[in-house]
Amino acid sequence: MFGVAEGYLIEKGRIGAAVRGATLIGSGVEVLLAIDAIADDLDVKAGMCGKEGQLVPVGSGQPTLRIRELTVGGTSL
User: Fold this and answer.
1) Which of 3, 7, 48, 53 could make an S-S bridge to 19, C-beta 3.0–4.6 Å?
2) SS3 for 57?
3) Angle at the Cα of 16 from the Cα atoms of 13 and 22, rounded to 5 degrees
């Protein structure tokens, strides 16, 4: 399960309504297999990860993805 920071429905091949306050539900393998387009806008941000005061620098990022089909849960779309 993942929370949506920014997402949009794609309806009839066009970008539709924004999706806010939603949760994406599914298995990681199923989601990876449902990716049908990847943009060239990879952006990596630096951050820190750790626990109990033990921090290490990390990088995290991903390009925009289009996922063919996914279950979306939440209170509104």
Assistant:
1) 7
2) strand
3) 120
**Amino acid letter, 72:** V
Residues linked to residue 66 through DSSP beta bridges, in sequence order: 37
Per-residue pLDDT, 67: 86
Give the burial class of 24: count Cβ atoms within 10 A of its Cβ; 0-12 exposed, 13-18 middle, 19 or more buried: middle
Note the pLDDT tens digit of each residue in 14-25.
988 887 778 877
Whether 58 and 29 have beta carbons less than 8 Å apart is answered as no
CA distance 70 to 26: 7
Kindly tell me if the per-residue pLDDT of 77 is higher than 50. no
